[in-house]
Amino acid sequence: MAIATMTTMTGEEMVALTKKHTLFEWSAQAKIDPIPVARAEGIYFWTPEGKRFIDFNSQLMSVNIGHGDRRVVKAIQDQAATLAYVSPHMATEPRARLGAKLAEISPGDIDTFFFTNGGSEANENAIKIARFFSARHKVLARYRSYHGGTAGSISLTGDPRRWAAEPGIPGVVHVLDPYHGVERGWESTQQSLATLEEVMQLEGPQTIAAFILETVTGTNGILIPPDGYMQGVRQLCDKHGILMIADEVMAGFGRTGEWFAVDHWNVKPDLVTMAKGLTSSYVPLGAVGMRHHIAQHFQNHVFYGGLTYNSHPLGCAAALATIRVYEEDGLLENAKRMGAIMTDLLKGLQARHPSVGAVRSIGLFGVVELVRNRQTREPLAPFNGTSEEMQALGKFFRQEGLYTFVRWNVFYTNPPLCINERQLREAFEIIDRGLEITDQAVKV
Ligand SMILES: Cc1ncc(COP(=O)(O)O)c(C=O)c1O
Question: What's the predicted TM-score (pTM) here?
Fold first, then answer.
C-alpha cells in the first residue's frame, strides 16, 4: 500500500529551515548537505520532489524490516490510542509481553530487561549493572568500536569520536582488536586473546567488572571475529570473573542472519545490549538484557537507574510488532539467503576493481575497503580522514539514488532485510559503476 506524502515544504525549504534552527550530529554544520526526505517504503525513500533512493544502509543500520510496514504502524497507532504513556513504575501489557518475548529469543538464560531510549543508554546501564553486581569498577572495551554518544558510552567507544569527549568516565581501559586496518590486516585468534589476557593481568583482573564488545563491529568496519575469538573471550571472562557484555545494538535483530550476532558462535554473554533493529527505529527503544542470576541480585539490592521513558508503551508495542514481522516474513532467513548473494556480489567487485582492497560481510552486514595501492594496501583515505576520491564516490552514489554510509576509506552495504535479489543486484550495479571513479586513483 502506498503511503501518502505528508510534507508541505520543498526539499530546499526543508534543508534551509532545518539547518537554520537545528544541529546535525558529529559535523561542522557548514559542511553538511542533508538529503530532504518526505516518505519511505520498503527499501526506498523519496525526497519531496520525488527523487527515489535505495536505502542501502537501512538509515543508521537500523530500519531492518524496511520502511513503512503497516503492521508496525498500526501497532503504534493502536497503542497510542489506548495508552500512549504511563510512568515506568507501572506495569503495562506491551512491557510485560516484550520482556517475555525477548527472554525467548535472547542468548542463554538472559531473561530480564531494562528498557531505555536507545543504544547509548542501554550501554550506560549495562556497565552500571556490571559494576553493581561485581563490586568492581574497571571496564574493558576495544579501540575499533562505537558504543554511543552519552558520557559513559562515549568513554567506552574506541574510535575517534571519543577524543573530543575526553577525559571521559573513569575506569575504562581500551584493548586492541584482532583487526589492524587494511594495511596490516588480521592477527590470529591466539595472538589477540593472549594480548587481551595480558591487559587483564596488567590491570588486575579483580578490578575489572566487564569487557564490552560489539560482537560484529559495525561502524568501525564490519569486523567479523576470527574463529575461536568469541569463545576465547568468553573463557577469559569466566576465568577472571569478568562479565561479558555483548553490544548487539547494530549487529542484533537479524542483521547478520541470526537474532543476535553472538549466536553464530554459540557464545552466551552475561549482558546484551540492543536498540535499532529492536523496533526497526519506528520509535526509539533500547534495552539491556541480563542473565537470570544477575537479575536475581537486584531482588534485594536497589537497581540505581531510571528514565522517564523507560519501558515506553509505544516503544514496547512497536518492538513486539517488529519482532512479529521478522518472524512472519522470515526475515532472518532472507538475510541469510540474500547475504549469500551479497557475499558473491562483493567478491565480484573485488575481482573486477583494483581499488577494492578488502570486502567483508555476514548476513546483510557488509563493507568494502578501498585502497590506492594493491601492493602496499595504502587506504584510499587516511584513518579518520577523507580524500577527493572518496568524496567523489559519495557524490556519485547520491546522484544515482543510492544511499549508503561512506566513511574514511570504506563504504557499507547494509540494506533492509526485506530486500530481494533484483533490488540487491540493482544496487550493486550502481556500486560497480561508481568504483570506476576510485579505480582511477590506483597506482599499482
Ligand atoms: C554498536 C553500537 N552501540 C551503541 C550505539 C548507540 O546507540 P544509540 O545511537 O541508539 O544511542 C550504536 C549506534 O550506532 C552502535 O552502533
Answer: 0.97
